[in-house]
Amino acid sequence: MASAASAFAISPSLPTASCRKPKRKPISPAVFCQRGSQFVHRREILKGLTLLPLSLPLFESVHPLPSQSKEIEVGSYLPPSQSDPSFVFFKASPRDTPALRAGNVQPYQFILPPTWKQTRVANILSGNYCQPKCAEPWVEVKFEDDKQGKIQVVASPLIRLTNKPNATIEDIGSPEKVIASLGPFVTGNTYDPEELLESSVEKLGDQTYYKYTLETPYALTGTHNLAKATAKGSTVVLFVASANDKQWQASEKVLRTMLDSFQL
Fold first, then answer.
1. Which residues lie closer than 8 Å to 214 by C-beta, 6 or more apart?
2. Residues of the chain whose pLDDT is less than 70?
3. Which of 7, 54, 83, 218 reaches 20 to 30 Å from 161, CA-CA?
4. Which neighbouring-strand residues pair with 236?
């Protein structure tokens, strides 16, 4: 920072504008001289800015951006789950994501191990730039653990799947039809119907959920994926749990527990 600070320092020995008498009467010599001095100072400050490294931010935000995350274990700030104290409980609120603040997504909740960490969602993927009327799906939140896998909540405008306002997940179609549309957001690239190993329907109160088990050898997210989808209001919400082969062997049960706990 010493080098950056020195870039802003204006040397006392810098030349100043000469105080010559102007030809026009409206501006007094004193004012003209003062303005010339200000011009020199501004010019030197601008020179100082150009000396700063491009990677050095000129201004640091006092408040973290919505897409920033807490790079610490969730067990240090989330409460224990009442259903299983070995997990912690996460319930999304409007302060967590742009879509929740805009009212485009209903608050959702799930449990996860206390050793997991929340990871940053890039601003372009968070929907921050297009709320409250996004035309494409966006990522709400992401959590991961190097040894166990990762999870993410993806939201999609209902209009991408059906023209019926406030449609339920059953209105959109069968579990197979829904995953055919949302599959690429599970895998991170493409979806092949042969990758679907199992699907089921679950009722929690008035809300219906479609659950999936997929084996995805070419997926960017991982060779094993679990997903759970539902629709409410103007949005379809998708919970995805992903793991590679090593993580799956060690944590399949944990990932399924997380998947089962997800609900709006």
1. 183, 186, 187, 195, 196, 197, 224, 225, 226, 227
2. 1-70
3. 218
4. 156, 231
